[in-house]
Amino acid sequence: MTQGTIFKIKRYALHDGPGIRTTVFFKGCPLSCRWCHNPEGIDPRPVSMVKASPEGAVHETVGEVMEVAELVTAIEKDQLFYDESGGGVTFSGGEPLAQPRFLEAVLDACNRRDIHAALDTSGFAPAAVLDRLLPRLQLVLFDLKIMDADLHRKYTGVSNESIIENLNRIDGGLTPWRLRIPLIPGMTDTQTNLEQIARFAAGLKSIQGIDLLPFHRIASGKYRRLGLADPMAGIDPPSPDHVAAIKDRFESTGFDVSIGG
Ligand code: SF4
């Protein structure tokens, strides 16, 4: 039986693709972005988090091993909402491409049920994995963080070489896709990086639009609950004016741009 590890299933999600969606968070990510908003999803194994309760602090395990059929049953529960809203399921994480066999089996089941399937990915995966999964997807939300290779490695722990290669693969294919740019103060939202991304995006062929994802502080409590220091302590979210100016910059070159996905 093909099994996978999931750390959250979010129902009625509105920012992970079109319509009303169920977002499934796959556990495990090969990156370690300084700003990660899902630090509980990086380790591929279940992890322990402290949770407040009326009896005081208790430990809860985050991460659950699931069978394909079990996950598909959970996804199917809201098929009525998907059908009425033009929604579906979005696989996020963590990095779903890090569990390729499980993802493939779940995608096949969703395709058989005519459930719209989207993938939210860092793009860091072997090209063969992407080639196998792309025909099973109806939408890809592809993160592009930093163009400079050294800065990418510094802030995410990995090279961006395979990410850029995979991005070009997607752009040459038939699966609809959007670019997602996290706006992290001083790391990804610098003028140099955004101009480099804009120049790169101008050469893309099948991109459908750009989602800007401004940094927020919601994850700081998760670091505390994991017993980790918050790597983004003291860093404020970008101002609405700054985000609006970046949106204008990308819109001026003809892109459909959303804030927050
Ligand atoms: S790619 Fe996403 S899940 Fe992985 S470390 Fe970066 S922000 Fe976190």
TrEMBL record:
The keyword Iron-sulfur applies. Residues 15-261 form the Radical SAM core domain. GO terms for molecular function: 4 iron, 4 sulfur cluster binding; metal ion binding; oxidoreductase activity; transferase activity. Keywords: 4Fe-4S, Iron, Iron-sulfur, Metal-binding, Oxidoreductase, S-adenosyl-L-methionine, Transferase. Its cofactor is [4Fe-4S] cluster. SUPFAM superfamilies: Radical SAM enzymes. PROSITE patterns: RADICAL_ACTIVATING, RADICAL_SAM. Pfam families: Radical_SAM. InterPro entries: Aldolase_TIM (IPR013785), Organic_radical-activating (IPR034457), Organic_radical_activase (IPR012839), Radical_activat_CS (IPR001989), rSAM (IPR007197), rSAM_sf (IPR058240). Monomer. NCBIfam families: PFLE_PFLC. Belongs to the organic radical-activating enzymes family. This is Formate acetyltransferase activating enzyme.
